[in-house]
Amino acid sequence: MHSRVLASAAATRDPQRREALTLFAENLARSFYGFEPDFFQQNVTRIVDDVVSVIHASLELWPTLVEICYFHKDKRDFHSSR
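The structure corresponding to this sequence follows.
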């Protein structure tokens, strides 16, 4: 896709379209870390590890929140808002 966008940018006569296509190609290259497989895989692995850590931390917190809510409802009703 990156090469197709660059080819389209080179073939177009409209300067605004050429600029937009060039910026899109640059954003693609940045998003995929310059299309270097090792670097891309390393960063995706890091991102997935971060997300899994957040999910794991929230799973540890969830029973505590349920317990707080359970004991709180016995004492008084929760506030409700419209």
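The mean pLDDT is 87.
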